[in-house]
Amino acid sequence: MVRLKSRYLLCEVCVSDRRNLSLLDDRAIYTATKAAVARAHGDYGAALSSLGFSVKYLNAHTGIVFLRCRKSHYRLIWSALPFITSLENRGQRVPCFLNCLHVGGTIRTCQKFLVRYNTQQLHRMLPLCQSEAERSEIRKSVLSCTLKKEADDEEEDE
Amino acid sequence: MAVFMDLNITYTTDKKRLRSVIETAAHLGYSTVAINYVVDLQQKKQVSSSVFPGKSRPIKVLNRLTVVASDPSHFRPNAEYKAYDLVAVYPTTEKLFHAACMTFDVDIICVAVIEKQPFFFKRSPINGAIERGVFFEISYTPAIRDSTMRRYTIANAISLMETCKGKNVIVTSGAEKPLELRGPYDIANLGLLFGLSEGDGKAAISTNCRAVHLHGETRKTALGIVHTMKKDQPLTERQEEEHAPVSKRAKIETV
């Protein structure tokens, strides 16, 4: 059966100092990734990354991005991701880096991984809480992490 | 999940920046990092202050010394080397590279990434190093900073891979800022650019790094069997409990 297979790269945008600079949009990530692939792999890379490549999902609070690319070329695009050093957004430049967490064949598998990852992050945040109200808030969110509603309402503090 | 290690974090005198680099490494999933003190041959040796920036997450911090050398006599003031967990050498001439592979008591040999390699790799010293359990290190942060460095890094890495067939290679960052670190899976993928196969790429940041760590530990013990420990520090005590299985398991015998 002929089927167009794709790979979804689940990445996290790590910004160094300011949480407020997570007001990114998907156009910025799209252009940054295309530029990085073009710089690293030349015209061949630029052509490949124009084929099946798109940014499927972006969460500005936690910095999670889903990138979609063709299965035959995802390694090439993935190998150019470490060379991204900053993102442009409406004239201001945000220094950051992309950290790839998971590669999945469908959005659903990436979502399952994301739910597990978020619960791990919440568990990590629990000993760092200052007040009891925050602690109970986190416990409630951990218990309510399911696939049905994508509950990532916490910022990771880093 | 395997343990990922990043064995090259450049020491800066700015403690806050060092601490943020280590915290970013912990966030990315590294279980162990090593702070690298670089010693150039002209300068006098730095003070080895083992800075442990407070274990907020259980990440292990090691010390590592890199000696930039161009003459065999500059290497080997033996006493201070015991204070470091890992010892590395950065040879700048072919003779020194040969000597470092065959005879020097080091764990890591750094491959030049910021300049074109002035000498070619030959198979015989590299095979000798592989048998002794010495690892070759490629650092990726210059490749992120600058495009010319990127070319040198990839060229030198590929010529190394051709000679050593992908064995005994570790890939580390040389991070000075927290934004220069990259996650472990990204680095394993960078190994593909350097000519490593997929399994070798993953090994380069997990199992090979662990082997380097064990190699460094057995350098402190005598042939990996006897271990001395300071009694007043609880940290060394904890390491000592790990040493009983480690010294039996250490497959690398030195000197």
TrEMBL record, chain A:
- Gene3D superfamilies in UniProt: Ribonuclease P, Pop5 subunit
Keyword Transport appears in the UniProt entry: no
**Which Gene Ontology terms cover its molecular function?**
ribonuclease P RNA binding
Instruction: Keyword check for rRNA processing, yes or no.
Output: yes
> What InterPro entries does this protein map onto?
Pop5/Rpp14/Rnp2-like, RNase_P/MRP_POP5, Rnp2-like_sf
User: What does the UniProt keyword field contain?
Assistant: Nucleus, rRNA processing, tRNA processing
Q: Which GO terms describe its biological process?
A: rRNA processing; tRNA 5'-leader removal
Its transmembrane ranges are none
List locations, semicolon-separated.
Nucleus, Nucleolus
Gene Ontology terms, cellular component aspect?
Answer: multimeric ribonuclease P complex; nucleolus
Q: What does this protein do?
A: Component of ribonuclease P, a protein complex that generates mature tRNA molecules by cleaving their 5'-ends. Also a component of the MRP ribonuclease complex, which cleaves pre-rRNA sequences.
Indicate the family of this protein: Belongs to the eukaryotic/archaeal RNase P protein component 2 family.
Q: How does it assemble?
A: Component of nuclear RNase P and RNase MRP ribonucleoproteins. RNase P consists of a catalytic RNA moiety and 10 different protein chains; POP1, POP4, POP5, POP7, RPP14, RPP21, RPP25, RPP30, RPP38 and RPP40. Within the RNase P complex, POP1, POP7 and RPP25 form the 'finger' subcomplex, POP5, RPP14, RPP40 and homodimeric RPP30 form the 'palm' subcomplex, and RPP21, POP4 and RPP38 form the 'wrist' subcomplex. All subunits of the RNase P complex interact with the catalytic RNA. Several subunits of RNase P are also part of the RNase MRP complex.
Protein's UniProt name: Ribonuclease P/MRP protein subunit POP5
From TrEMBL, chain B:
Q: Name one GO molecular function term.
A: structural constituent of ribosome
- Keyword tRNA processing attributed: yes
Keyword annotations from UniProtKB, A to Z? Acetylation, Nucleus, Phosphoprotein, rRNA processing, tRNA processing
Keyword Oxidoreductase tagged? no
Q: Where is this region: Disordered?
A: 232-255
List residues traversing the bilayer.
none
Give any single GO term for biological process. Answer: rRNA processing
Q: What does UniProt give as GO cellular component?
A: nucleolar ribonuclease P complex; ribosome
Instruction: Quote the subcellular location field of this record.
Output: Nucleus, Nucleolus
Q: Which domain of life is it from?
A: Eukaryota
Q: Which family does it belong to?
A: Belongs to the eukaryotic/archaeal RNase P protein component 3 family.
The UniProt function text for this chain reads: Component of ribonuclease P, a ribonucleoprotein complex that generates mature tRNA molecules by cleaving their 5'-ends. Also a component of the MRP ribonuclease complex, which cleaves pre-rRNA sequences.
UniProt subunit comment = Component of nuclear RNase P and RNase MRP ribonucleoproteins. RNase P consists of a catalytic RNA moiety and about 10 protein subunits; POP1, POP4, POP5, POP7, RPP14, RPP21, RPP25, RPP30, RPP38 and RPP40. Within the RNase P complex, POP1, POP7 and RPP25 form the 'finger' subcomplex, POP5, RPP14, RPP40 and homodimeric RPP30 form the 'palm' subcomplex, and RPP21, POP4 and RPP38 form the 'wrist' subcomplex. All subunits of the RNase P complex interact with the catalytic RNA. Several subunits of RNase P are also part of the RNase MRP complex.
Its recorded name reads Ribonuclease P protein subunit p30
**What organism, scientifically named, is this protein from?**
Oncorhynchus mykiss (Rainbow trout)
